[in-house]
Structures are given as C-alpha cells and as structure tokens.
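REQUEST ID: PR-0412
SUBMITTED BY: lab tech R.K.
PRIORITY: routine
TASK: structure prediction, single protein chain
INPUT:
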Amino acid sequence: MKKLVKSVVFVCLLINGIAFAATVFTVQKIQVTGLQRVSNDTLMSYLPLKVGQRLEVPRQSTTIIADLYKTGFFSNIQLDRSGNTLIIKVTERPTISYINITGNKEIPQDKLKDVLSKLGLVKGRFLDHATLQQINQALENQYFATGRYNVKINVKQTVESRNRVAVHIKISEGAIAKIGGITITGNNNIPSALLDKQLTLATPTLTSFFTRKDEYSEQKLQSSQEGLQNYYMDHGYINVKLDSTNVGITPDRKQVYLNFQLTEGEQFHFSGYKLSGQLLDKTKELNQAIQINKGDVFSRQSVMDANQGMSTILGNDGYAFAKIQPEPQIDKKNKTVFINFVVTPGRKYYIRRINFMGNASTSEIALRKQLYQMEGGLYSTSKIHYSVFRLRQNSYLQPAQPPQIIPTAVPGKNNLLDLNVTVAEKLSAELQLSIGYSQAYGFLLSTGITQSNFMGTGKTVGFSINTSSYQKSFSVSYTNPYYTPDGVSRSISVFGTQTNSDQLNIAQYSTDSYGANVSYGFPMSVYSSLNLGYGFTDTHLKIPVDSSCTKAKAANDQCSVYQNFQNNYGNRFKQLLLTVGWSRNTTDNSMLPNRGTSQSLNLTISAPVTNKQALQYFKLSYTNDWYQPLNKYFTLRTHGTVGYGDGYGFMKSLPFFQNYYAGGLGVQGLNRAYSPFSLGPVDPVSRQQVGGNLLISGLVSIILPNFFHSNSIRTSIFMDGGNVFNTHSSVGPYDFKPENLRYSYGAQLEWWTPLNLPLIFSIAQPMNNQPKDQTDPFQFTIGTMF
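STATUS: complete
OUTPUT:
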C-alpha cells in the first residue's frame, strides 16, 4: 500500500513538475523558491545537476524531481525555465511540532514512541502523510502482542503556524483477551493434563486473579511453546516437534482459543557418557558432577546440570571460561543417546582489580570486606557466588536489584581479569515506629532509628526510645562486622528500661533495668555463624505493698506469683549474662524472602554477681523460618519458635519477669487473632497474665502472587498456632497439652515503605478460642517484623 501511494504521488509530481517543452540548454543559474526550513545548500546537495551542465528536458528533469522527492522534504516540486536559468519551485512538507499520546497505561510512552520513531514520526522531522496511515497498524501490533485485541487507535493532526503539524494519538486499550480453551493434539504418550501444567497460559480458575495465566500474550504463548518442548526433551523425546500453534480469536475479540499440534517421536534413554579433552587430573571430581546413569530416560536438563557442575569445578581452580561441549551420539535403532563431554578448560585466570559501581554512600572498603574473592587471588566461581550472596544480605543494599559481579578480560593480559561489582543502595537509616491499640492498654508508641551503614563504613549504629504508657526505655548499640580481618564481628550495646505493667493486663509490677552487653560473631561458613557474648544487668523489681501477703503467709497461697517471688528472692539483682548463639541463613532476600531457610539457636545463662543479689536461670530458644516456592506464583512459608527457661541452683523456676508471652502481632508468641500478651498462665490471686516458661509458636502461610506489581509489598494467608505454658503446673489450662494450644487464621499485608519501614496489617479469626480469651481480629504494626 505504501509503495502504491508513493507511486501515485510521484506520477502526479512528474505531470505537474514538467512545466516546459522538450529542449536542451546549458544551465547558467539555478534559482529555488518555496524554501522555509530546508536550506538552499541542503537542496543543492541532493540535486543531480550543477551550474554549467547541459539539461535535457524532459529526460533529466524527471531525474531531478525524483531525487528531490526522495529526500522526503517536499510535498510538491515543479521545474521552470527563464532563459538559461533553471527555476525549482518546491512546497515543503509540514514539520512535526510535537506528538501527544494519551490513554496508554499498559505500554509506556517511551516504548510507543520508539515504534513511531522507526516509522520516521519524530518531533522536528517532516511529516509524511503516508506514514500517518501506518501508525494505527504499528501501534495495534504492539497491543496485540499483549493480548489486547480490542484496542482502538485514533490519530489526528492539528495544523499550526509556520507550516507545522501537531500529531494527536488517542488510545483506548481495551481488555486483555482471556483464554477460552486450550487443546493439545499429537500427544500419544503424555496426557494433556500433565502437559497443561507446563504452559504459562491456562483457562480461567479461582487463582487466575493472582496468576493471570488466563490472560493471553505473545510472550506467554512463546513461553508455553518452550515449556512443552523442554518437558518432552527432559523425558526422552529428543525428536519432538511442535508442528504448529493455532491461535483463534472470537469475533468480539474477548477470547482466544489455542491448539498446539505436535509430533512426539520415540522415547530415548541414556546409554552412558564419557569425558574427553583436557581433564587436568580432575576426572574423579568431574564425574561426581554428572548425575547420568546408563538406562535412565534421556533428559536435556541432566546434561545441562552436568555442564554447570563441571564448569563450577574448573572455575574454582581459576578456569573462568572453561567450555564443556556435550556431543550426543544417537543410536536410532536402540533408541539410546551416549554423551561425550569434551572438556576445554582454557586459561587459568587471576584477579587483577575489583571495581565497584553504584556505591554512592558506601565505601569500597566496606564492600570489599564482604567479598570472598580477593584481588591477586586465583579466580573462583564459588567465591564469586558466595560474595554475591553475602552482599545480598546487607540491609543497606536494594534486594530488588541484586548485586552483580561480572568478570572482564584485561586488555593485553591473557591471564588477568577485572571484577566489576555493581550494587544498588537504599536508605540505610531505618526508622522504627510501633503503634497499637486495644481496650487492655490503650495506645502504644515506640520510636527508634538504626543506621546500618554508618558514614558508608558498613558498621551499624542504633538508637531507640520507647515512650509507651507502660514502658520507657532506651538503647544505644554499635556493631562492627569487620572487628578482625578474619570476619569476626563485635557488637556493643547499652540499655535502660523502666516498665510499669500496671498499665497492661499482666502481673502488677514494675522494673528498672540498666546494663551493657558485648557480643562477638564468628563465621563458621558462608551461611552460618557462632555468637558468644557477655553482659551486666542491674535490675530493681518493684512490687505493690500488700499487707495481707507476708513471708509467713506466702505458703498459704495468699500471695500473687510476683509477691511470692519478692518474698523469696528480694527485689534488687545484679546479674552477669552469658550468651551463646548459632545462626544459619540461606534466604535469597534480606527483606522479603522467597526461598531458603533462616535458623537461630540461642542460650542465655544468668549468673549472680554476688550471692546476696542472685538470680540463677537459663533461657533456650530455637527459631526456624523456611521459604519454598510452590510454583511460579505461590510460596510456602513456615515459621516456628520454641522457647524454654527455668531456674537452676537454688532457684526453682524462671523469674516471672523473664517469662514468655503469646498473642498478638509483633509478640514473640505470635497469634494474630488474640490480643497482645493475652494468652497463657494467669496468676491465681490477681487473675492477670504472668506468662510462662515454655513457648510454642508457629505459623503456616501461603505467600500470594504479587498482584500489586511491587517488590516492596507482599500479601499472604496464614494459620497461626501456639501458646505459653507453665511446666511446673501439672493440672489446669496452663500445662503443656495439645488441647491447650490456640489457633487462628487470616490474611496479612506487608509493605516496606520508602523510608525502609515495614508496615504490617493483619485480619484474623480465632479457631478454638475459649470464653476467657481476649480476641483482637484487626491489628497493625509499623517497624516490627517477626
């Protein structure tokens, strides 16, 4: 169509442009009229004729008109003669003053303007009316690729002064076409139901709102085709062919029907493998990386995994660009495949220099200490992998833009590489704010700030202050993750707390505690570390005076738990706290993980400083977080916490103010349908919560697809379970028994705000609450994670 339009226009130009009869003359002067934006010199540069040359009309005149028309500058060209002067009369095409696109939401303007640019429709250029006719089809094709077959494109132009034109493009995107049906034909050996699971497209289901698998797009279609072929190749069908894919659209363009036609071929098995090439005395290690056995069904993925494993082994010894070439030997008669892995290690490389990019605030020294790969050392694939993992665990780097380490060859050096480390920083100052409200204790407010990358050093400095109605506290902490060159960290903290539990529905007491702690972290592996610490705490316990409760009457059960404790042990305690901890973290994201495990095991032992002011107790706790993707859209998370404490020596039980509590969001004994601190043992005298020395808490949740299209927002559905117990009680509702556990279910939304502040909303329903339980279905917290 475009060629036809240009041909018609060109013929018309020739008819109008030849304004004088057939003749031959020498051109002594060339005069041009009608130019506005195009300079005279520019026109002359395209003119196939110079002053002093002979002009033969009409043969040469048609060439002149054709060459000038090809420039795209002019909509009309005429030639005339006055004596020996050639007169060229032109009409310039209008220029595009601006291009206005409205109505587009799914496809950004930059991408749409790139499409227009390829057509020559760019601000400042001359407007070709033939190009306007192509805009609709070009933009429609972009939307068709996303499944929006009902898109409407309306193109208008507005004439402006100085021979300019404004182009207005109004888009009505329409809805994405849904998958009306999918059929697979030719699959004689593998059921369609199994093949359907390999597709990224599907007919509508209850989960389509999250997965969007029922929305058609060319990209999903291509991914589905690859999924089918990969599945067959991984199950021995090496000659599978996807003969055709038919896409049918309903007349209203709202539904798409797909038909995949394939030829399976026959199934093949492995007949064995061998290693050849330069094995570098690593035959044993290379064989261990190959999980291929004679008689197994052929799998292309197994071959790829073997390649990757062998490349890593060689890469750990400096062979950064080792090549493993699998050469299949196919026996069609016996339907077997024998793989010859040809090993070409190439050169051994060393690291010359490590370059950092993207670290505007963080010093290179801080980042360099995170790396296992060192300058001057032998290149190691595993060390680079571990370095990326360690960088990803830093709270001052963007988890949505993972760090990258790219090796590049050093010019002129055949055995040296530079490593380019690219990171993306985020706000390293973490503001913490917790807000809560319930009938039990009214409003709560605590604030704090943690600078996890203090002055770009990678060190952490934190300060927090709590000003709630029941507690006032402060803490100052400092962590140096590079205390020694071997990676030992040291943390120092100073704290003070004044607690008045009269404001809560727990035991009536208050404490003033002050102290300091020092702890050291010893790396055991890339993923785990051992922590040892010590500290000093001075605690002053304040119990309301009750004339009916004395030491003499304590044995008659007339005193509350906390009054009995004061009668037996006093109210001023100076303690030496010893801590031992082990932690392991393999999660893929420090903020909102999707894969991996985080574990911690901690022991705290309280030893007296003096015999007169003594508390002898211990607390042992274990926490496990596990994330496992169920498929491309859903992730399973399990979380469990077990805590146990007790007295030793002359103490018969854990001090009541060291007890565990359960219930509520942000409480260690998480249970989101119950009021905070409301579950567990109740004092028989005051009828208030006193907590327990045994904590059991867990949850199972399904992390839902990210339908907000944001890396900082996560939604999930969950079931919580747990409670706290008194192991020194053998009867009643506070002894550890399965029937005394509390359960709830609900939904939660987590949002990491731009201030690096986690905001959590939950709505939950109890499953087996008892008459005296306090429930609180809607809860939220800011700055608290669990």
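NOTES: Confidence is low (pLDDT under 50) at residues 1-20, 436-442.
REVIEWED BY: pending
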